[in-house]
Automatic annotation (TrEMBL):
Keywords: Acyltransferase, Transferase. It is an enzyme of class 2 (transferase). SUPFAM superfamilies: Acyl-CoA N-acyltransferases (Nat). This is GNAT family N-acetyltransferase. GO terms for molecular function: acyltransferase activity. The lineage of its organism: Bacteria, Bacillati, Actinomycetota, Actinomycetes, Pseudonocardiales. Residues 175-312 form the BioF2-like acetyltransferase domain. Its EC number is 2.3.1.-. The keyword Nucleotide-binding does not apply. Pfam families: Acetyltransf_6.
Length: 328
């Protein structure tokens, strides 16, 4: 086996890379097209890109991206777990915008990859190296701890399995089910319409402003780089679906959703609660996102991090996420 390093994803054959990603069942955040979009329009400050491909002969058997950053923590969760790493360079896999970190692999090659990442981190003069948003109890989590990387809790991501929409509703409490139905009825009465569009037809300038305002309201204003967001979403192409919710033509909610083979990711949203009528535009967006996931044949809804009370009430389940860093 040999490990290849590249400083740009565009130097790596997409079919080679994606063959490992899809065989391992890794999420959309690892697909070549997603990484290409992120490299073209980074959503946070990145000093250097690093991509590792492990080959057994000519066959790729493992891949992983990593990013050199001095401020890798736009939500401040990483530095709550590792205060000693604040304002220090770190080579991390994956970027914070991925909430399901994996090492796509078809062989037990993690020790080799770790060695390559640590050596690369040293060359970059980074003080830290490791992984963030690793699902607790996963094979990767167990393997990282076995290789000397301790785990510290970051947050939880939320997900649920999907069948039909009626089956989804049936799993909720009577109150939650009634609230969703009542909200949709009130929204219709208030003249609200929803539309699902591709990125080429989405009102990305409007959506960017709405998402930025929403993030600022929840003290997450540094999570996305506004100017890069529209460029990044456009570059995603068919990986992304945009849900627009409008009242009398005014955008009151929007979501950028991502898809892979089995999962539907409600990846970023914006909401304006100053609406005409007694309804929640976020509730409308959430219900339409579930319907879209089901129409697209995806069997798992991934609803990101945060907003725990709403997500628990609406049938999603928490998955604890850890960071596993070592000092170089």
């Amino acid at each position: 086996m040999r490990i290849e390093f590249s400083s740009s994803i565009r130097e790596i054959d997409a079919a080679d890379w994606d063959s490992v990603v899809r065989e391992s069942g890794a999420p959309v955040f690892y697909e070549h097209a997603y990484l290409t979009a992120f490299e073209q329009a980074p959503l946070t400050d990145v000093e250097a890109f690093a991509y590792f491909v492990v080959r057994d002969g000519d066959k790729p058997v493992a891949v992983t991206p990593a990013y050199l950053q001095t401020a890798p923590d736009p939500l401040r969760r990483l530095h709550e777990a590792y205060p000693e790493a604040r304002d220090q360079r770190a080579l991390l896999s994956h970027a914070w915008h991925c909430y399901d970190t994996r090492v796509p692999a078809t062989a037990e090659v993690l020790p080799r990859l770790l060695d390559a990442m640590i050596r690369t981190a040293s060359i970059f003069k980074a003080q830290w190296c490791g992984f963030q948003n690793v699902r607790r109890g996963s094979d990767l989590s167990v393997a990282l701890r076995a290789n000397g990387l301790p785990a510290r809790h970051l947050a939880a991501r939320w997900a649920t399995e999907l069948g039909s929409y009626e089956h989804y509703l049936a799993r909720l409490s009577q109150r939650a089910r009634a609230n969703l139905r009542r909200n949709e009825r009130r929204a219709r009465e208030a003249g609200v319409v929803t539309e699902v569009v591709g990125v080429e037809d989405a009102a990305l300038d409007e959506i960017t402003l709405l998402c930025d305002k929403t993030a600022t309201r929840y003290d997450n204003g540094g999570f996305f780089s506004g100017p890069a967001f529209a460029k990044f979403v456009t570059a995603l192409g068919d990986l992304a679906h945009v849900v627009e919710v409008r009242q009398h033509g005014r955008l009151v909610a929007a979501g950028v959703c991502l898809t892979d083979a089995t999962r539907f990711h409600t990846w970023r949203c914006g909401v304006d609660y100053a609406v005409d009528g007694r309804y929640s535009p976020y509730g409308v967006l959430f219900a339409e996102s579930i319907r879209l996931a089901i129409r697209l044949g995806r069997t798992t809804l991934e609803d990101g991090r945060g907003n725990a009370s709403f997500k628990r009430r609406h049938g999603l389940h928490p998955c604890p996420l850890d960071a596993t860093l070592i000092r170089i």
